[in-house]
Batch of 4 targets.
Target 1
Amino acid sequence: MDKVDFTEKFALFSDRWSPKIVGEVNDAHVKIAKVQGAFVWHVHADEDEMFIIHRGRLTIRLRDRDVTLDPGQFFIVPRGVEHLPVAEEECEIIMLEPKTTLNTGDVVNERTVAEPEWI
């Protein structure tokens, strides 16, 4: 495995809400994505999901509160917790999650990425 430069990886694509795999740790993928706007309310019944902010600002709406993240910050959404990621401006995020994690969790729609590509 070679070192990974997140800035270089983010420069390789422009689509939003479409995670890309940039690494693998045990049974987890390291994914990156550009996001803007609201995603979809969803839940991962069996998987925790870690969001790390590379650039921009992301708000993770939970049913009981909002968690706003700036660059260099992270938040772990525990399994079973419904959430809605929202970014007013384009935001670059890094996610650490089990390989089995479907980006839209229990929802299947046009934003579902069943097999993210490696970049």
Target 2
Amino acid sequence: MTAPIKSAAAGALLVIVLLAGGAASAAALPDDANTTCPVMTKEKVDPDLYVDYKGQRVYVCCTKCKKRFSQNPEKYLALMKSPDDKITSTVKAVPSPVK
């Protein structure tokens, strides 16, 4: 069991430390990394959780998604967006049909 926070100042400091840690983690992603999880597509990725697949590093949001991606990577790669949409850069864009 954790000890309760005994003062407002200590609580505020804890919040600042947690927020700073999150910002530092997001900065750790390479420029060309996917920023949303290919399994849970609306979740931001954790820079410390990834799967290397066929020469590509694919970041995920949690250990459950890492396991799911590893079990069926082609399924989740197909769901990933193109590099032009700023969500991921692991899959090349497919041209739209001309009408």
Target 3
Amino acid sequence: MANLARVTPPRLPPQRRTTLVMFLGFLAVASVLTLWMVLPYLLAVTMGAILALLASPVYRWLLEHRWKRRSASLLVTLGIVFVIIVPLSFFVTKAVQQAIAMGQELAEGGLSFQVLVDRLGDWKPVQAIMGSPQDFERSLRSGMQSAGTKLSTAIIALAAQLPGIVLQLALASLACFFFLVDGPRFLGWMREKIPMDADVRLRLAKSFTDTSVSVIWATLAAALAQSTVMLFAYLVLGVPAVFLAAGATFVFAWIPILGSTPVWLAGTIYLYADGA
């Protein structure tokens, strides 16, 4: 037993250790390069998987009515394109146009801040910090022009990426088609890799799927409701950039705690500055 305890595993020769280290190094570099090339398309594939997950009830309904898998997947994908992606593209285009116009107007000093200056200039804390109303007006105009310039630059940079966004949406639609066709087989292959009993794997997969779909639908419904309310509120109150406000509300609604606060706060400041 003592002799067995002193037995140590044989070491690799120095030449083989060097070869192994070089191989692992090249493998790590190749993995990083592959991930770097694939990373821009992971978002599109993920979006396609989410769309397929949400549209799976319709797809299964078509299969139950004797539609073929590829025909049903093609119909559902086309429905997603015309019902969601095309209106979304129009909405994003209008929001970008309004954001560029607003940024240029702020940068050129086209908005009037006289009412806001008159109202805030009477506040004692503002007078103590900013001094005279003229100094406060100059500081406010300078800050708003700087913000407008930065906003215009950022939005123009975003507009330059619109072709890439369109490509991502096209890839997401293509991924949705294949996830609908081969998604069950892919999930079955993944379930086989989980080291659990078959019934436990099935219950776990069903629970994960139901929870994911419920969370996505709930958050999506809340974001759409807030965006719709903000869109009509801006229209009724006469606040400009309604599409930009609705789009920003939809994005912010996915952020916990923050929500639509920045959008309605910006509208409130605009109305206050406009004398409402």
Target 4
Amino acid sequence: MVGTKSNSRIAYLQTVVQALALLIGTEGLLQAQSRGELRAPERPNIVVISIDDLGYADIPPFGRPRYATPNIDRLAREGRAFTDFSVSSAVCSASRAALLTGCYHMRVGISGALGPNSNIGLSPKETTIAEVCRSRGYATACVGKWHLGDAAKFMPLQQGFDHFYGLPYSNDMWPGHPDLVKLPADAAARKSSYPQLRLFQDNEVIDPEITAEDQARLTTDYTKRATQFISDHREQPFFLYLAHSMVHVPLFVSAAHRDKSGLGLFADVMHEIDWSVGKILDALEEAGISDQTLVVLTSDNGPWLSYGAHAGSAVPLREGKGTSFEGGVRVPTIMRWPRRIPADTRCDEFAATIDLLPTVSKLIGAERPLLPIDGLDISALLFSENQIESPHASYFIYYGSGELQAVRDRRWKLVFPHRYRTLSGQPGGVDGSPIAYQPAEIELSLFDLKNDVAESRNVLADHPEVVARLQASATEARRLFGDQLTNVAGDAIRGPGKVD
């Protein structure tokens, strides 16, 4: 009896100690979460969904589109909306290079949109998010649009991905481009135009001539490949980069979603994109790994406004794709991680796609790339219950082949004199044909983005101290990355990879 009572006392004391430890641990967890220091479980899965040319106002909670997006709405309800999230440049290849490397696109030498048979691409010397994840034993896959060089040495399997299924560049870079189909079949420009669009699986071309019927299946095919990858790797940590070709023109939609919105082709395409997001979320749930997965939904730049009815919207932001105004570089972004990111919340602090790589590195316990990068860890912005300030003291916005067109901080944006394209308030084109942009010029301007997100009021004269501070940041940007507008060459540009 004495031994039994002694054992009971020991068991009781152990229970008390465990309860106290749990209580203390829970309190510490809550305190850490409030400070934005919540520790993630070991090696979470990472899913990045990039929707091509998705405008700021094309999805809730950033805008109020006429069409329904129940699955994207669910993502926002279960996650956090980032209302001030920027790309490096408002054009395809530059933006994607920045997202995957954590660098300003100028540092890695990728500007504009690379065409077929380009003699440059993302240098294999750069470290991508895929390679960071691979260093921690992750399976990696790129599904969709690549657009970082179509020579073999630049393709996804040579940049850290185990699998690739998709197109080497934009879906309009094909003989069916609207500028070409209106030309006579024997016209020199048409004959010397884009080659046939190819579909890749890993390093092999599995369809050498993509047709309109093939394009209509792209979103569905991408989604099937992505969900299969999730199912196949439910027991292994993974990084999935799902880069949709839509809603970039030309717009195509599968038969299952055609005319479902009742609001035209663009809305039908968004109907299918939303369906795809739902299938990804369902696949994570079915695999039992939803709570172990960070899902990021974003865009590569703003809407291609000249296409009018076939383009999205950035209202109330100024302009769109191809400009350094907010309509071009600010993109709708949602992040969801159940039990980690507070549900149904928003972050109004500045962050950018270059921050994804260093943030993922921290979350999975990986080393940062050996070469310098520009992104910052924003995990505090993901997890905190309280308002945490952006870690960015300044952010540089380049366009073209090297023009520093703007520099900003958490609140202010200084825009340098430059030429830009605009529709001057005119509606865009119809039926997939664009209208011409008009050239315009802007003088040196300061905008208060917290109170004037439309960049409509130049308050340069009212805040000389802000102008001086941002000018100093611009001087540093020019030292690093140069500036064609002021004829300065940068000393931190590593340059792209080149075809031998």
